[in-house]
Amino acid sequence: MNPAQETSDAIAAALLVWFQRHKRDLPWRGATPYGVWVSEIMLQQTQVVTATPFYLRFMERFPTVNALAEAPIEEVLVYWAGLGYYARARNLHRAAQRVVEEFGGVVPANPAEIESLPGIGRYTAGAILSIAYNLPRPIVDANVIRVLSRVFGIVGDPKSSANQATLWRLAERLVPQANPGDFNQGLMELGALVCEPAEPRCDACPLFVFCAAGHSPDPTALPEIPAGKAAVSVTHVSVLIRNEQGAFLLMQRPLQGLWGGLWEFPRAVMRAGETPKEAGLRAGREIAGYDLSLSKQVAKIKHSVTHHRITLYGFMATPREPLPLENPHRMEWARPRDLDSYALSAPQTLLRNALQAFLVEEGKGVMQPTLEWE
Ligand code: SF4
Asked: Which structural domain, as residue segments, surrounds residue 349?
């Protein structure tokens, strides 16, 4: 076996093990080919958390391709209302009618046939064929582009035709004969949960040993977004956890990846559908290992790094119950006068400055307004 194929097999094996352990329980896992198809169409331009209730309602009303084909388009659009991009619904409906008329109501398992249906391109065909029919077909979507660009160190615009050809070639080489659907879902899941755009968690990544970007000072530098393209906005929430002695909890980031080895106040990246306070409580539970009560918002900081515009909220917090942590980071309680001796990232330095200003005012008994920093 050639070395490139050996590496591909090792990547596939590592990803499959990780996926079995970490996959989210989503309603379309194990669905029929039609159910997988509906989920893939809904997930185009739509987050999982948004698409899930729509998927459940849609599948309850149109449980089979026949049920969808027979329904009037007006009713289909009612069930799609709120998801946007209505051409997706119209194409899905037309395609369902063709599946009934031309393929006896069975979603085709043949690449040429399935790609002939309205709204099904190379990506959607690959997803349906691999996930529902267990065929070793590649997929390349935004998550896969990010993961493969970082693992293989692909520079330049990932949308260029040369890089698109490279990405599809790599995806094709990687997808295993056994479990191709799980492998493809694993790639997408890794991009969604670990290899995130602004904050890849390289220390928790099954592909770290293979990854070019993971061993670089800034994994977020890939994929390279062409100059002039809009920056991605992300919201971070840090909790300023103060114990009874007045010390604050700081955590050290893993050595690999963005801000490697620097310290920070326990922080979470806000997820779709979360409020800043909910993300702060999650930072307490998942990062710091405390059930918290949050109080004042001390700061809202804006900062840009590479192609990401970060908004960082900081909330005062009091620890209640300690909770068990799976992969605890190194942590220390720092007295306010010692906070300056920790190396922090740029946004966390601004947050520390805001906290110190807050503590001075608090000491004077002055109610402090929320501070905004740029
Ligand atoms: S090691 Fe880091 S950059 Fe590489 S794939 Fe994993 S999370 Fe992404």
From this structure: 232-373
* pLDDT tens-digit map of 100-144: 999 999 999 999 999 999 999 999 999 999 999 999 999 999 999
Cα 44 from Cα 374, distance rounded (Å): 34
**Contacting residues for 183 by C-beta, under 8 A, at least 6 apart:** 12, 15, 16, 19, 130, 174, 175, 176
Closest residue to atom 2 of ligand 1, CA basis: 202
- Tell me, yes or no, whether 27 and 138 share the same domain: yes
Q: Against a cut of 0.85, is the pTM above it?
A: no
> Using an 8 Å Cβ cutoff, are 262 and 255 in contact?
no
Hey, which of 19, 143, 144, 147 would you mutate to test ligand 1's pocket, going by the most ligand atoms within 8 Å of its Cβ? Answer: 147
69: in domain: yes
CB 206 less than 6 A from any atom of ligand 1: no
Shortest CA distance to 236 belongs to which of 349, 331, 312? 312
